[in-house]
Amino acid sequence: MVTPCIDIEGLRFSYDQASEFLIDRLQLEKGSHCFLEGCSGSGKSTFLGLVSGILRPKAGKISVLGEDLKKLSPAKLDAFRAKNIGYIFQRFNLIPHLSVLENIRLAGFFKAKNTSPQPSQEEEKNLLSALGIENIAHKKAGEISVGQAQRAAAARALAQKPELLLADEPTSSLDQPMQKAFMDVLLGLAKDRQTTVVFVSHNPQLAPMFTTQLKVDDFLKVSTV
Asked: CB of 66 within 8 A of CB of 29?
């Protein structure tokens, strides 16, 4: 039996005492590309936070790549995340006084007990070129446009060749032609590397590019406590 990339059962999570997020059951296969659609405030970012271990549930099981996240100490969870998960944050989380290239390389410093080689300069160059940001590699992240920052954040998430890529609205600041080019690169690299992708967005026009399509309301319920 093949171990799923993401396996969730009986999950309960809350930010406060007023409401609670519930997931009875959800499985995603390794290597799948999942489009997760939901309106603003529906729980998309919360779901990614739980899958990445940034948020911890108060009950239930979350297994990622065969690892039960609830059983990991904070230090081991940080190491697991650095080694296995790439995350494109909605607000990018680039360090403004570092260059684009330095931001991309930063992920490698946090990859605990890294036994695989770091990306070569040629691999970095190819990744930057594919995302159309090779000409801003040495500019400070605080000096680039929103669209460029979005692509730099994607490059940082992809540089370490993670097994799981989580993407939180990564095309929201790109125009339509750039969206198409960005998605072709993102999913092409993920397919070549057999990376599982969970991509959340409120834009249903992107859904046909993915092998799996879900709506947040299909599996995540919000209950008033």
From this structure: no
